[in-house]
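Quick one, T. Sequence first:
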Amino acid sequence: MKHIVILGSGFAALSTVRRLRREGVPNPITVVSPRCELVYLPSLIWVPSGKRSGDELRVPLARFFERERVNWMQGSVQQVLGGGRRVITDSGALDNDFLVVATGGRYLRRLPGIEHAIIPCEGIAQAETIRDRLAAMDGGTIAVGFATNPSEPGAVRGGPMFEFLFGIDTLLRRQGRRERFKLVFFNPSEQPGQRLGPAAVGTMLERMRALGIETHLGHKPLAFTPGRVETEGGGFDADLILFMPGLTGPTWLEGGELPLSEGGFIAAEATCMVRGMERTYVAGDAGSYPGPDWMAKQAHQADLQAAAVARNIAAELRGAPATHGFRTELACIVDTLDAGMLVWRRGRRNLALPRTRAFHWLKRRFEARYLKAYR
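Structure tokens:
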């Protein structure tokens, strides 16, 4: 039987596995990743407050792989050769008949002094560092910001930074310490978070004003130094800097065979097939896809792309054409630790529902339901 190889064990990779089996594909599947676990990144926002611990966000995948009849191979990808049919890893080579690249992206670290900022969504260790730094601070200035990939403006993950910002504000108020801190939100755009839609942007900026959060908008970040943020519009002091730079593709793509977009991602067709390559697909943050300028880099979109990949592989195995595209949709709850605002976007439709406690609890219920499939 034809062998399917999936690179990665994040949202796109695991959703591809599940959807392939739902499509009735019985073929052998091998998943290649450094660790046999899923880290539920959307809930990193709750680590600084202690609402979640790192261990709660690590989901071992051995049982899931056993249920889905998946062979897991430990390894990190180094190259893809032979028109996609051969994968070179640090654990050896692996051949395939169908390849799915779902290794995710990486954050650009080009700004001078980026080591003086914490990139919250890089993982559990970073979220725990934020928790520990906040606990040790008696007061001071906390700067929170994000930027994009200048070569591919859609490669941005700004939503979590709004959540860290509002979550820290809520946490400090709960602790009775908010008056000792200055919170500053900075962004190169005067209207940050535009992929969420104009209503959401206006609501969040108004919320910042109501909470006494200062803003430094419309100025490109230039550098970070210990205790300071420098931008084209001047600098300001900061005792703790949280910054989410733009995304690009994984390092192993550089100099390889896979076609790349201007921003360094794998260039994909609307079907998620890698441009110009047969039986080779990409899903999630590693790819650059045709679509509207507001298409987000988020787990929900990765799941939708994975569904298209699985349907196309199933079609090809039946001898049918691989013509399935993915739905472009943005769906998220911008959480503030005790409430949340629901944002949804598809086509020309865009909703931004006011923050309520119900949306916070809905986000927590979604987490439990989503992870149940892998536990």
